[in-house]
Design a protein that fits this description.
Pfam family, one: Acyl-CoA_dh_1
Family: Belongs to the acyl-CoA dehydrogenase family.
Distance between the termini: 30 Å
Helix content: 40-55%
Structural class: alpha+beta
Order of helices and strands: HHHHHHEEEEEEEEHEEHHHH
Number of domains: 3
Number of helices: 11
Bound molecules: acetoacetyl-coenzyme A
Strand content: 15-25%
Cofactor: FAD
Strand order of the largest sheet: 1-4-5-8
Shape: globular
Keywords: FAD, Flavoprotein, Oxidoreductase
Organism: Perspicuibacillus lycopersici
């Protein structure tokens, strides 16, 4: 067993850490306040070759591994979680299903758009009445000649305003009891396709979260992604990879909160000494350091298993569940250590706490992760 990063992973970490500190962190507070999407940052990430990081070089990617992807998500999220989630969804939800299930022709058409950053990646699963019960999809795709005609709604979709296409699930056949769910690639400029960007969110204000409305959207049948009727399973498999991204985001936000709390505790004097000299504060900081270490190790383990092409569904859920819950706890404790200042935006920790909450919900709630783990251990 070897816990060291490889030379390539170290190089990617160094590059993205410097980039995040110099280019991403400084505007994070203002972007959160003004709800401004970090478009220029993604242009620069494309210039750095990060937008297609884990995808094959023949499609414009960098052919890197999943641990490298997790490192990039962690560093971006430490600086700005809105940037982190945009990147994580772009790769693990937008690009991954095309890479995993696309035909050669589909990969040639869509992956270069992802790898160059010309299109951000987005994926459409969730619907108003199909959240945790993701198989309850109501969006319908009816065959008409060589086309599918799609009608339905998707909600909480990351990145769609900046995507040239979205892979989404739709019912392609139903016998009234069981629905045949397929995945279909839909260009966002299709007639009848509307992207609505007006959610009022708790946090992650600089990320793009949208509703999709499809009214008689016509796409050729060749836009079917993977095997007909396998769409739900394909998307669950895609989410396994996405959950590593959410785990990495959680580690990044928690690390940022911990560093801010440690620095504040050392500098803040009450009762004649630094509050970091009080055991009550020391124990909080020690718990933070321990839990971040555990979460990061679990994220890397899930990523490593994926890279070894071994089953990783259980580990992806464990890392997502554990990291998101400790992130919520750590960001809340970081606010606590900052006292009244922590409640103020300028100290950043209240933003971390608001951003952390989404991680216990998106890409499968904590309750869904426990269902997945329970099933995996044979309950
Ligand atoms: N990979 C591949 N196949 C899988 C799988 C996986 N990880 N997990 C299950 N399957 C297969 C099963 O083997 C089963 O196959 P058979 O029918 O052949 O037996 C099939 O898929 C159905 O599995 P389940 O019976 O376990 O499915 P279920 O209906 O009970 O649901 C669930 C299980 C865990 C609750 C699942 O629905 C789930 O994960 N829900 C949460 C969905 C989610 O995370 N949504 C957030 C999406 S994020 C988003 O949309 C917005 C964005 O941009 C971020």
């Amino acid at each position: 067993m070897n816990f060291d990063l490889t030379a390539e992973q170290n190089m990617i970490q160094k590059t993205i850490r410097e980039f995040s500190e110099e280019e991403v962190a400084k505007g994070a507070l203002e972007r959160d306040r003004s709800k401004t999407f970090p478009k220029e940052i993604f242009q620069k990430l494309a210039d750095l070759g990060m937008m297609g990081l884990p995808f094959p070089e023949e499609y414009g990617g960098a052919g890197a591994d999943t641990i490298s992807f997790a490192i990039v998500v962690e560093e971006l999220s430490k600086a700005c979680a809105s940037t982190g989630i945009t990147y994580s969804a772009h790769i693990s939800l937008g690009g991954a299903p095309i890479h995993l299930f696309g035909t050669k022709k589909q990969k040639e058409e869509y992956l270069p758009l992802i790898c160059s950053g010309q299109s951000l990646g987005a994926f459409g699963l969730t619907e108003p009445n199909a959240g945790s019960d993701a198989s309850g999809t109501k969006t319908k795709a009816i065959e008409q000649g060589d086309s599918f005609i799609i009608n339905g709604n998707k909600c909480f979709i990351t990145n769609a305003s900046y995507a040239e296409f979205v892979a989404l699930t739709a019912v392609t056949n139903s016998d009234g009891k069981k629905s045949e769910i397929s995945a279909i690639i839909v260009p966002t400029n299709s007639k009848g396709f509307t992207v609505i960007d007006n959610y009022e969110k708790m946090g992650l204000h600089a990320s793009n979260t949208t509703e999709l409305v499809l009214e008689n959207v016509q796409v050729p049948k060749e836009n079917l992604l993977g095997e007909r009727g396998q769409g739900f399973k394909q998307f669950l498999q895609t989410l396994d990879g996405g959950r590593i991204g959410i785990g990495a985001m959680a580690v990044g936000i928690a690390q940022a909160a911990y560093e801010k709390a440690l620095a504040y505790a050392k500098g803040r004097k009450q009762f004649g000494k630094s509050i970091s000299s009080f055991q009550a504060i020391q124990f909080k900081l020690a718990d933070m350091a321990m839990k971040i270490e555990l979460a990061r190790n679990m994220v890397y383990k899930a990523a490593w298993l994926k890279d070894q092409k071994r089953p990783f569904t259980k580990e992806a859920s464990i890392c997502k569940l554990y990291a998101s819950e400790i992130c919520m706890e750590i960001t809340s404790q970081a606010v606590q250590i900052h006292g009244g200042n922590g409640y103020m935006q300028d100290y950043h920790v209240e933003r971390y706490m608001r951003d952390a909450k989404l991680l216990e919900i998106g890409e499968g709630t904590s309750e869904v992760q426990r269902m997945v783990i329970a099933k995996q251990i044979g309950c």
